[in-house]
């Protein structure tokens, strides 16, 4: 692979003049600064981007690796940095959030408003006894209140754990229990694509499942007024709680290592991991990457379409843009309602200048735009756009080119940002004023990030040869631990054979010419479906927990044109192998079961049945074969070690 000249998109100098990092020489100077004095580089930026209550005296503490500490003796408050600081700088009247509801209704909130609302909720939480270090689960849809809830927790030093509104009662219960949350903040319902969907009812179900005894209070934001159950001793309306609360709330000044949030994410084995992030280092990278990767300027309107339930919504909605005093769009709905022109219409209406979305969304909108001019980006005025971004999964060059041409009018750089829940912010990404672009490549490490590609023993592989993506040095916004599972943290991310490097879990390759990185996908049993991270084992456990029906299950991913990867499950039932209509019926039942156990995003796209799974004589499932079957490939691999080759024909059959 080589990035020949034809595929390279140079920096559009005219539009990028004045960028925060302008030109490759500036980029290289930052890389060199970090190399020359790593701790000093991050300390300089931490002073520039973060306002500290007590200044730190030390940058990196690596004395207890891999439990790294950054800026440890400094104290600060994230909510102060995102809100008060902007008001003090004279931005009180500036719009912080332009909220567009599912039905198109728009609400604008200034920095002063957002500060007042955050303080009132923070005071309400304190009145309920929530204090520094307590965990609060937030189970809400996209809303101003969702951002306010996160900021209010940060203000009082409570550690939030946001759970995506699409997760089931069972998943929510697991996360509440794992975090030991004292409070859940939710809404009566959420509205998406014209439909009202329950939230509070799912919280009730989660708590009823047991194990959530730590929860004393549930605060409910009234979004729709839809009917919901009520436990008077536990449940409180948000508007009642905040009424009469002062609009001032002294921030809780916390140490830089204080856990700002936990966010559960899927791993290759076992239950989801509670990724723990810090306060100081995290905020630094959130603000810094928002500024440099998106080249945010005072008059920009930034729109990140992610949900606050995922890390992208944390760093690039709840924290990064607000820390910079930017104006951002927050959207409640879905890209296809009322029609597939919604994104383009919103860019036009709100004059969005920096737009950040996922390849899955682009790919699904391409199909719909091809089918109808009315929802094609060309039917909208997108001239406000300056920079486009992509996140969550590899963007295939065809989708990249379409996005560049049709949405960006050929003039907007696309920043393909590689990062993870664990990394807190961008790791490998173009800087739009500096980095020439190659479709499908996330280009170069963010200045200061020591990303590299190594073999199984941690030795560098030459460019042009694929390998394991690692980060050789700790960085400020890295995961601090897995909540309550320090050993798992060490073994998952710092395996002894990799010389103490951080293991990302992805494969990658660098171009022999310019050294650009291309991510080749996960190297573990983690799937990426529509940019959502799912563990194959989690889905397998959900299937086999259907003990009435399922004896055994194996789950693999297969490439999918729209969702990137699709979930394909191979199932052995307790009874006879079903065929025809019976197979279809049971497959539907099992898909719904998984939806209830984990959430709709985990439902397998396809379920196939066999009398057994392909196993070696020692009983090991041959997943390689299952991956080929899922792709409908002819089996060319050696099957001589297979105990039961006859099942291959069964498992090749679609229902
Ligand atoms: O496989 C990589 C993929 O998404 C994984 C991280 O998922 P999550 O923790 O849910 O965070 C998603 C939002 C940052 C990675 O291990 N991934 C993320 N961004 C990219 C990507 N793969 C290729 N290119 C990207 N830009």
UniProtKB/TrEMBL annotation:
User: Carries keyword ATP-binding?
Assistant: yes
List ligand-binding residues for ATP. 392-394, 416-421, 506, 522, 533
EC number from the UniProt entry: 6.2.1.1
Enzyme category, top tier: ligase
Which CDD domains does the UniProt entry name for this protein? Answer: ACS (cd05966)
Q: Which gene encodes it?
A: acs
User: What positions does the domain Acetyl-coenzyme A synthetase N-terminal occupy?
Assistant: 28-82
Check the record and name the Pfam families matching this protein. Answer: ACAS_N, AMP-binding, AMP-binding_C
Keywords, sorted A to Z: Acetylation, ATP-binding, Ligase, Magnesium, Metal-binding, Nucleotide-binding
Q: Which reaction does it catalyse?
A: acetate + ATP + CoA = acetyl-CoA + AMP + diphosphate
Name what cofactor the protein needs. Mg(2+)
Give the protein name, as stated in the record: Acetyl-coenzyme A synthetase
Family annotation (Gene3D superfamilies): 3.30.300.30, N-terminal domain of ligase-like
What start-end ranges are recorded for coiled-coil regions in this protein?
none
Domain (AMP-dependent synthetase/ligase) spans 87-475
Which residues of the sequence carry a binding annotation for Mg(2+)? Answer: 544, 550
The record's similarity note reads: Belongs to the ATP-dependent AMP-binding enzyme family.
Q: Where does CoA bind?
A: 192-195, 312, 530
Query: What organism is recorded for this protein?
Result: Variovorax humicola
């Amino acid at each position: 692979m080589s990035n020949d000249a034809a595929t390279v998109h140079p920096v559009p100098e005219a539009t990028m003049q004045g960028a925060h990092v302008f030109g490759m020489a500036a980029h290289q100077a930052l890389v060199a600064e970090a190399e020359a004095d790593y701790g000093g580089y991050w300390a300089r930026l931490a002073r520039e981007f973060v306002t500290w209550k007590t200044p730190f005296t030390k940058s990196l503490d690596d004395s207890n690796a891999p439990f790294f500490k950054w800026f440890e003796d400094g104290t600060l408050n994230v909510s102060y940095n995102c809100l008060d600081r902007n008001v003090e700088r004279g931005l009180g009247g500036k719009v912080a959030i332009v909220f567009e509801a599912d039905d198109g209704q728009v609400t604008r909130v200034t920095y002063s408003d957002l500060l007042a609302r955050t303080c009132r909720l923070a005071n309400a939480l304190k009145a309920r006894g929530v204090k520094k270090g307590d965990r609060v689960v937030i189970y809400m849809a996209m809303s101003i209140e969702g951002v306010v809830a996160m900021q209010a927790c940060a203000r009082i030093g409570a550690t939030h754990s946001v759970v995506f509104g699409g997760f089931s009662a069972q998943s929510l219960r697991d996360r509440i229990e794992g975090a030991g949350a004292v409070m859940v903040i939710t809404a009566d319902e959420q509205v998406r694509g014209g439909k009202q969907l329950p939230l509070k009812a799912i919280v009730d179900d989660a708590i009823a499942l047991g194990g959530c005894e730590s929860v004393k209070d549930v605060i409910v934001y009234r979004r729709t007024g839809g009917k919901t159950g009520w436990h008077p001793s536990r449940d409180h309306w948000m508007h009642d709680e905040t009424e009469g609360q002062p609009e001032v709330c002294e921030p809780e000044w916390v140490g830089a290592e204080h856990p700002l949030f936990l966010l559960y994410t899927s791993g290759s084995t076992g239950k989801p991991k509670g990724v723990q992030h810090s306060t100081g280092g995290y905020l630094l990278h959130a603000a810094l990457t928002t500024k440099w990767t998106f080249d945010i300027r005072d008059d920009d309107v930034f729109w990140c379409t992610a949900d606050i339930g995922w890390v992208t919504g944390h760093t690039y909605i709840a924290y990064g843009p607000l820390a910079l005093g930017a104006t951002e769009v927050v959207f409640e709905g879905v890209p296809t309602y009322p029609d597939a022109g919604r994104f383009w219409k919103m860019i036009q209406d709100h004059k969005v200048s920096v737009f950040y979305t996922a390849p899955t969304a682009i790919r699904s909108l391409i199909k719909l735009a091809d089918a109808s001019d009315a929802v094609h980006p060309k039917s909208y005025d997108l001239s406000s756009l300056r920079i486009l971004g992509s996140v969550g999964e590899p963007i295939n060059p065809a989708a990249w080119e379409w996005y560049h041409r049709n949405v960006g009018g050929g003039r907007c750089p696309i920043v393909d940002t590689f990062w993870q829940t664990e990394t807190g912010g961008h790791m490998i990404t173009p800087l739009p004023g500096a980095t020439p672009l190659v479709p499908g490549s996330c280009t170069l490490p963010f200045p200061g990030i020591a990303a590299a590609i190594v073999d199984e023993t941690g030795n560098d592989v030459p460019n042009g040869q694929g390998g394991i993506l690692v980060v050789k040095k700790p960085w400020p916004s890295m995961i601090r631990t897995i909540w309550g599972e320090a050993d798992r943290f060490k073994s998952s991310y710092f395996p002894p054979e990799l010389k103490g490097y951080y293991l990302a879990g992805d494969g990658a390759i660098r171009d022999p010419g310019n050294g650009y990185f291309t991510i080749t996908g996960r190297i573990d049993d983690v799937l990426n479906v529509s940019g959502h991270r799912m563990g194959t084992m989690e889905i397998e456990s959900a299937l086999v927990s259907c003990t009435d029906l399922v004896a055994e299950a194996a789950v693999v991913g297969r490439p999918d044109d729209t969702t990137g990867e699709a979930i394909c499950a191979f199932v052995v039932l307790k009874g006879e192998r079903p065929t025809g209509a019976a197979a279809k019926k049971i497959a539907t039942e099992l898909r719904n079961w998984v939806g209830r156990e984990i959430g709709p995003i985990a439902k397998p796209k396809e379920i196939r049945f066999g009398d057994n799974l392909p196993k070696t004589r020692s009983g090991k499932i041959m997943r390689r074969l299952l991956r080929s079957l899922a792709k409908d490939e002819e089996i060319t691999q050696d099957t001589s070690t297979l105990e039961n080759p006859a099942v291959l024909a069964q498992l090749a059959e679609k229902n």
